[in-house]
Amino acid sequence: MAELRRDPVLMVGEGWDAYRLLDSGNGRKFEAYGPYRFIRPEPQAMWTPRLDHWDAHGEFVPGSDEDGGGRWQFSQQVPQDGWELGWGEEARFTAQCTPFRHLGFFPDMAPVWTWMGEQLEGRTDAETMNLFGYTGVGSQALSRYGRVTHVDASKKSVAQARANAALAGLDDRPIRWLVEDAVKYTAREVRRERRYDGIILDPPKFGRGPDGEVWRLEEGLPGLVSDCRRLLDADSSFLFLTVYAVRMSSLALAGLLDEIFADLPGRVEHGDLAVAEDTSGRLLPTAIFARWSNPR
User: Of 26, 52, 147, 247, which has the highest C-beta tally within 10 A?
Assistant: First the structure.
């Protein structure tokens, strides 16, 4: 029976040459993506900035409603088609100022990519799946351990993920790039009696599939995690679930995994993802997570 560890875990991302959190405060954050610096909204940065002035190339100004919207304002030139960045020894990707306020990848996921690699250390035959895989940096990280199934409902995101893999010189890696509704695809994999060594999923709060399917996190998550569990067994290594921008505790996610993974060995943990500021070390929380792992 999987052991539930109730004390929360912090997974902290440190800056690297492609990304640094320079400062934060007053509901905003100041970041460097390679040679370019940006200001973006961050409601959890309730403290005061440490720097007197933020010299940014651009700032995302949010819309007036809670559901998002907004636009970029630039004070210095930024490549419209993006610029190349990397993570680790292999992963490469294009950063770009998107209409959704982010820049084409989520740097706070770096410690998650490292953690997944630790679970699969020494493997070259692992079968893993990246649900809601977005632009595929996580899929690149997993591909060094075996075959990866990358699933996202956005045709544009999957195209960018494939382009990122080509940029990294990973065209020959065994990655399946699928434009699919994650819930429907996972259910089909259950019916096919497929098995995976690891699954990572990063579901949105709300979304639509390629055929207009509606996703609401609180309604759909229990069934999706249950189907993911049916694709794992006692010899599998992990499931990692991240959730952004919801009024929910990581303990709630852990309770869900504790129930669904009760018949498997290993442990269930939960906590926060955070990014450390480059000079002060102050931590900016970004998301909550729960994970099941099966150490050998």
Answer: 147
Per DSSP bridges, beta strands 28-33 and 36-41 are antiparallel
Domains of the chain: 3-293 (3.40.50.150)
CA angle in degrees (0–180, nearest 5) for 24-48-73: 45
Give tens-digit pLDDT for 186-219.
999 999 999 999 999 999 888 777 777 787 888 9
Contact of 130 with 150, CB cutoff 8 Å? yes
- 8 Å CB contact between 182 and 188: no
